[in-house]
Amino acid sequence: MNFDLTDDQRAIRDAFARFVDEAVAPQAAALDEAHAYPRALMDQLANLGFFGLRYPEDAGGSGLGLIEFALALEEIARGSMSLAGAAAMQSLMGTKFLHMLGDAAIIERLFKPALKGEKIGAICMTEPGAGSDLEGIATRAKKVDGGYVLDGRKTWITAAPVAQFFTVFARACEERKLTIFLVERDFDGVTVGRAIHKMGVWALPTSEVAFTDCFVPDSHRLSREEGDGEAHLRKTLAEIRIITGAMALGVARAALAESVRYAAERRQFGKAINRFQAIQFKLAEMATDLESARHLVYYAAWLHGAGRPHHKEAAMAKLHATEAAARICDQAARVLASYGYAMEYPVQRYLRDVRFTLIGGGTSEILKLIIAKELA
User: Fold this and answer.
1) Quick count: other Cβ atoms within 10 Å of Cβ 21?
2) Strands 165-172 and 121-124: what pairing?
3) What is the pLDDT of residues 155-185, one digit of tens each?
4) Beta-bridge partners for 147
5) Contact in structure between 176 and 231 (CB atoms under 8 Å)
6) What span, in angstroms and rounded, lies between the C-alpha atoms of 359 and 125?
7) Torsion over CA of 248, 250, 255 and 259, rounded to 10 degrees?
8) What integer pLDDT is reported at residue 130 of this predicted model?
9) Engineering a disulfide at 168: which of 38, 65, 124, 319 sits with its beta carbon 3.0 to 4.6 angstroms away?
10) Beta strands, E only, the chain
11) Which residues contact 233 (CB under 8 A, 6 or more apart)?
């Protein structure tokens, strides 16, 4: 077994680490407090080629794999979870189905500009009555001459206020099976509704989106045939879970680093608190949690790149990495004690932001059910 990164993988990791240290970390707190989409940093990520890392060169990307993507995203999350969430949406969930299913016109007019950061995409799945339960999706697509008419309401749509196009899951045909549509922001009947105010990732806007008698032309039905949406979604869920695990690694690393730094500086009873066994135990447990999570995430990414079965491992990676990150951020707040509760220290932000990773891509409870079924 060889656990070493290749030279190219190290170069990608180091390039994004430098970007985070120089451009992201110094303004992460201010970015969060401004509650504004990180457009300038997203433009810089586009210039670095992040959005196209995992897409083929003939589509405007770099042709790299999920490991390289995860390494870069982990570094971005170390600096700002809001930026990492926006970048992940733009480079996977917001564009994947366009690349996988869109025609040449869609690729040229929307997908390629999105890789350059010129267009922002979002995905619309969650509804007021449907989250983990895909069967609960009620948005309806009615076939009419030349296209479809969409009616329904989506919620928890990441980047909705700034998006120019949406990948929408709706029920079509008499069997009311999930079908994927591309809906552009300026289509009649599209309304970006109320903003959802969250406890974390403040710089990543999230809103409701409503479709009312919204006409979508046949050219914008991404599904090859009506009802194939769930099959396409399941092909992407493993990737979503792996990269969510990578984001969890990033914020956990930041929390551990802040804990180590603070414990070396803070003095009580005449010595630094990192000399006390109680603190040493916390740091050791945090570091062990982080290392085990890292191995699971990158093993799942390696399986994906090797074309081997990886759905169970992706679920395991997301489950363990996000839960471990939540524990690490909580322990960091305990190491800093009262300062872990103070807004002037970044640990409170890590503690708020890490919960974002526990939700997207499947809750821990859903992931446990998936893993259990794989064992049967």
Assistant:
1) 13
2) parallel
3) 999 999 999 999 999 999 877 899 999 999 9
4) 144, 217
5) no
6) 14
7) 130
8) 85
9) 124
10) 121-124, 140-144, 147-158, 165-172, 177-184, 190-195, 206-217, 267-268, 271-272
11) 125, 134, 169, 178, 180
Mean pLDDT by 10 residues, the chain (376 residues): 93 98 97 95 98 95 97 98 98 96 96 97 93 87 96 96 97 88 98 96 97 97 93 91 98 98 96 97 98 98 96 97 98 97 96 96 94 91
> Angle at the Cα of 51 (from 228 to 95), degrees rounded to 5?
20
Give the separation between CA 10 and CA 12, rounded to whole angstroms: 5
User: Which class for 74: exposed (0-12), middle (13-18), buried (19 or more C-beta within 10 A)?
Assistant: buried
Widest CA span of the chain, in angstroms? 80
The answer to whether the beta carbons of residues 177 and 250 sit under 8 Å apart is no
Please give the angle made by the CA atoms of 285, 352 and 233, to the nearest 5 degrees: 95
Q: Which residue has the tokens 């552009």?
A: 184
Question: Whole-angstrom Cα distance, residue 319 to residue 357?
Answer: 10
Q: Which segments of 228-354 does DSSP mark as H helices, in order?
A: 229-265, 277-305, 311-336, 347-353
Decide: 326 and 290 in contact? Cβ < 8 Å.
no
- Specify whether the CB–CB gap between 304 and 339 falls below 8 A: no
How far apart, in whole angstroms, are the C-alpha atoms of residue 294 and residue 245?
8
**For residue 133, what pLDDT is reported?**
80
Q: What angle do CA 143, 147, 148 make, to 5 degrees?
A: 45
End-to-end CA distance of the chain: 28
189: which 2 tokens? 């009947």
Q: Which of 361, 145, 114 is nearest to 248 (CA)?
A: 361
Angstrom distance (rounded) from CA 225 to CA 313: 30
